[in-house]
Design brief:
The chain is α+β, with helices and mostly antiparallel strands and 299 residues long. The chain has 6 helices and 13 strands. The protein is elongated, with a radius of gyration of 30 Å.
C-alpha cells in the first residue's frame, strides 16, 4: 500500500513538473533565433552580475575589466572607465532584480534592475533607477551593454529646466524649457562657416524667404534672402568665433525653437576701419526649420 501511495505521489510530482513552462517569451528580431522562446540562464550569470556590480562600486577598473570580453574592454575603453570611476567621490550599484536568459543555445543575456548613486568629485549628484542589458559571449564575459534610466534625484542633467514667463499671460507661461534637436546646431555651424568665407549662397540656406533682424542698436528691419547679396561688399574680411550654441524650446509646444548663440566677431572694412564685438544672439527657427527672426546683443 505504501508503495502504491509513493508511486502516486511521484507520478503527481512528475505531472506537475512537466506542466510547468520551462520556456517563455520570444525573440522577434532578425537572425537564426527569430521566433525562438527564452529559457532561464545559469546561476553563474547571476553571480557574474553581482561581482561586476561590486567591482564597479569599489571603483576598481582592473577588477571590473575581468567581467568583460577583451573585444569590449579594449585599452581605450578601460582607460575611459578608469577616468569615469576616478571622477567619483563614491559610486554604488545595488542590483535588486537580476534575470539571466538564454535563447537558442548560443545567446546569453542578463537583464538587471539596479539603484545607483553617484557622488561626483566636482559636486554633482545623481540617484538613478537603472535597467541594464548585459549580453555575454560563450566564455560568460560581457560583450555588449545597454542602459535605460529613470531619474530619482539629480542636481544636473535633467531633460527640462528653467521657466518660460512670456511678455504677457498665456497658455505657455510657467512651462519649463527643453532642448530642441531639429538640426539647429549643425545649421548654425554651417552658417558661421559660410559667413567666415563670405559665402552668401551658403548663408541663404538657413534663412526663411523673409526674416526679421533686431540688432544690438535697437533697430528692427525685415529682409528677404535677396537682400543678403551685397551683405559682404563693405568688408575686406570677417571672423566669427562661436563659444556656445544652445537650441531650446518651450515644453509641449510645436517644433518652433530658439537658438542662443554666444561668440565674438571681428570685421575689417575695405576702408581700413575695424569692428570687434562680443555677441549674444537668439535665432528663431520656424516650423520649416529655417531662421525667421533674430535678436542681437553686443558689448
Amino acid at each position: 500500500m505504501k508503495f502504491v501511495i509513493k508511486t502516486i505521489i511521484v507520478f503527481i510530482i512528475a505531472i506537475t513538473i512537466s506542466a510547468c513552462n520551462s520556456t517563455g517569451g520570444v525573440w522577434l528580431g532578425e537572425g537564426e533565433n527569430s521566433g525562438k522562446p527564452y529559457t532561464f540562464g545559469p546561476e553563474e550569470d547571476i553571480k557574474l552580475l553581482q561581482n561586476l556590480a561590486g567591482a564597479y562600486s569599489e571603483k576598481n577598473a582592473d577588477e571590473l575589466s575581468k567581467y568583460y570580453s577583451e573585444e569590449y574592454m579594449n585599452d581605450k575603453r578601460k582607460e575611459n572607465y578608469s577616468k569615469w570611476l576616478n571622477s567619483m567621490e563614491s559610486i554604488t550599484m545595488k542590483p535588486y532584480k537580476i534575470i539571466p536568459l538564454q535563447n537558442g543555445g548560443n545567446f546569453r543575456q542578463v537583464i538587471a534592475w539596479s539603484k545607483e548613486e553617484r557622488v561626483h568629485k566636482n559636486g554633482s549628484y545623481e540617484k538613478l533607477d537603472l535597467m541594464e542589458s548585459f549580453v555575454l559571449d560563450n566564455d560568460g564575459k560581457v560583450k555588449s551593454f545597454k542602459q535605460w534610466k529613470a531619474i530619482d534625484s539629480v542636481n544636473f542633467g535633467m531633460p527640462y529646466g528653467g521657466k518660460f514667463f512670456g511678455n504677457k499671460e498665456g497658455e505657455y507661461a510657467g512651462r519649463p524649457l527643453v532642448f530642441s534637436n531639429r538640426n539647429e546646431t549643425k545649421m548654425i555651424e554651417s552658417m558661421v562657416e559660410s559667413y567666415n568665407k563670405m559665402d552668401v549662397e551658403g548663408m541663404k540656406n538657413v534663412f526663411a524667404d523673409e526674416f526679421i533682424l533686431n540688432d544690438y542698436k535697437g533697430e528692427k528691419a525685415t529682409y528677404k534672402k535677396s537682400d543678403l547679396e551685397n551683405f559682404f561688399s563693405p568688408f575686406k574680411s570677417v571672423d566669427w568665433k562661436i563659444n556656445a550654441i544652445i537650441p531650446i524650446k518651450i515644453a509641449n509646444t510645436d517644433a518652433a525653437s530658439g537658438v542662443i548663440v554666444r561668440g565674438s566677431e571681428s570685421r575689417v572694412f575695405k576702408n581700413g576701419r575695424k569692428w570687434n564685438k562680443d555677441l549674444m544672439e537668439i535665432y528663431y527657427f520656424d516650423l520649416e526649420g529655417k531662421i525667421s527672426s533674430m535678436e542681437q546683443f553686443a558689448k
